[in-house]
Every structure is written in structure tokens, then in C-alpha cells.
Design a protein that fits this description.
71% helix, mainly alpha, 291 residues, MetI-like fold
């Protein structure tokens, strides 16, 4: 194949150059254009007169944006802690060579094959007080049973956490399990010879040596938190009210519904800045580790 390509005059450098040119124009070009729009008063039609940081001031005095940021923090903390804990627990159980391991791995990996839209619609039906879990239990005779979190502004955000953990725990399980299967067997022999309890071996010996694996899971989950949109639209549409509003939904709504291009661009740039700030410690630790 390589010889045939050479005969045809194929030059890989040209292909690589074209690829980088496309990335530069459509990816970095879009970031630059969005950052410029965030400094203007653009609405439906872009305006190219720079007005400074007015849109950023408006953004951080917008109650809806502040609520969406608070929701993202609440959602992110519970989602990441819950997903990591549940995913790591599944990985540890699978690592102990339980019976029907492949079957259970398939069950917990299945949610990854389902889109977030389908996931949101399924959980919306399941948690709907009139037709879901609450109606089912009451139909079985427990009339006082109540599970109406989906319609309660103070608890609706936690329904997103439940659905997201169900969807992402399998991914963490697979990544951590791959790391566990890469542990040297001699280390396990030494642990058994020392008589170290299994739980202590995982917490004090195994997992500290898997920091890059855990860090990779954290980075993936953080990206899901910041760009979360599909699940929210399918499950709550940001409601009740703005109880489950997130920055990504805020930006999309102001782009396409309220046609405030300047404010939406400012929100998008703040999301990008937040992503960079969250990823900086990870890249810094990786850089120091390789020096």
C-alpha cells in the first residue's frame, strides 16, 4: 500500500497541512470570532463595533446566568463524586473475577450506547409523578409514597445527577478496570504476603499508583459537566422555572431564542475559560511528572 501511494505521488505532508489548516480555520477561527462578538452589542445580526466588556458585566449581573453557574457547581460536585465512587466500586468488583463478569460489564456499559436525549426522556418518564415510579408504587397500594423531585425546584437538579451517574458510571468502570488489570501481579503477591486487608490495599497501595487513570476520568467528567445540554433539554428543559438551568443551555437560548449574540458569546467564552482553568492543574501535574 505504501509503495502504491509513493508511485501515485502521494505526499503525506500536504495532507497533514490541509488538516491543520481546516482545524485552524473552523475551530480556532470560531473561538476568535466568538471572543470578538463578545466585545460587541451584536443581536440577530453581528455588529463589529467594539464596546469593551459590557457584555461580561451584563452577564454577571444576569440572575439567570448566576443561577445556571450555581446549578453547574451543585450538579458537578454530586455528579463527579457519585460517578467516580460508583464506577470505581464496579471496577473493583469486576477486578475480583466475579461470576458472569462479562454479563455485568455489558449491563453497566449499556447506558453509554444510549444517547443523552434518550436517557433524559427515559428518566423523565420514570420520575414523572403522574405516570412514573410514584404512580407505580401508589398503584401497588402505598398511597402515601411520594417521589416528585422532578417537579420540585429545590430537588430537580438531583434528578439530573441520578440520570447522569447512571449514564456515565460504566465509562469510569471500564477505564479504572483497565488500569487495575494492568497492575503487576507481583504487587498483589506482596500484598497477600503482608496480610494487608483488601480494602486497605486498594485505598493505600493500588489507587495511589493509578492517579493518571483517575485524573483521566475526572477530566472526562468535568467536560461533561461544562458542556451539559442534551440531558437537560430532554429531561427538564431547564425547569421548573430555571431550577436546572446550566451555562450551556443559557448560551444556546440566548443565541437562538433571544437572539442576543453578544451576550451568548460572552457566556461561551466564560465556559471556555472555565474549562481551561479546570484543566490547568491536570496538565501542570502531567508536565511536572514527565520532567
Amino acid at each position: 500500500m505504501t509503495t502504491w501511494l509513493k508511485r501515485q505521488g502521494f505526499k503525506p505532508n500536504i495532507t497533514v497541512a490541509i488538516f491543520f489548516a481546516v482545524v485552524a480555520v473552523f475551530f480556532y477561527g470560531s473561538i476568535l470570532w466568538t471572543s470578538y462578538m463578545s466585545l460587541t452589542r451584536s443581536t440577530l445580526i453581528p455588529k463589529y463595533e467594539v464596546v469593551g466588556l459590557v457584555q461580561y458585566v451584563d452577564l454577571f449581573t444576569n440572575q439567570r446566568w448566576l443561577v445556571s453557574c450555581l446549578n453547574m457547581v451543585i450538579f458537578g460536585v454530586f455528579y463527579m463524586v457519585g460517578t467516580l465512587a460508583f464506577g470505581i466500586l464496579l471496577a473493583v468488583l469486576a477486578d475480583r473475577r466475579i461470576k458472569a463478569e462479562s454479563f455485568f460489564r455489558t449491563i453497566f456499559l449499556y447506558p453509554l450506547a444510549v444517547s443523552l436525549i434518550i436517557t433524559g426522556l427515559s428518566w423523565r418518564w420514570l420520575l414523572d409523578p403522574t405516570s412514573g415510579l410514584q404512580a407505580l408504587v401508589r398503584g401497588m397500594g402505598w398511597e402515601s409514597f411520594t417521589f416528585d423531585w422532578l417537579t420540585r425546584p429545590d430537588r430537580a437538579i438531583y434528578t439530573l445527577v441520578i440520570a447522569s451517574i447512571w449514564h456515565s458510571a460504566g465509562l469510569v468502570m471500564v477505564i479504572v478496570l483497565a488500569g487495575l488489570r494492568g497492575i503487576d501481579s507481583d504487587l498483589w503477591k506482596a500484598i497477600r504476603m503482608e496480610g494487608i486487608p483488601l480494602w486497605r490495599a486498594y485505598l493505600q497501595v493500588i489507587f495511589p499508583g493509578m492517579r493518571p487513570v483517575i485524573a483521566s476520568c475526572v477530566v472526562l467528567l468535568m467536560s461533561e459537566v461544562i458542556r451539559g445540554y442534551d440531558l437537560i433539554i430532554a429531561m427538564t428543559k431547564g425547569g421548573p422555572g430555571i431550577a436546572t438551568e446550566m451555562p450551556a443551555k443559557f448560551a444556546v437560548d440566548f443565541y437562538f431564542t433571544r437572539v442576543n449574540l453578544g451576550l451568548a458569546s460572552a457566556a461561551s467564552m466564560m465556559m471556555l475559560l472555565l474549562s481551561l482553568l479546570l484543566l490547568t492543574p491536570y496538565f501542570y501535574s502531567e508536565f511536572r511528572r514527565r520532567i
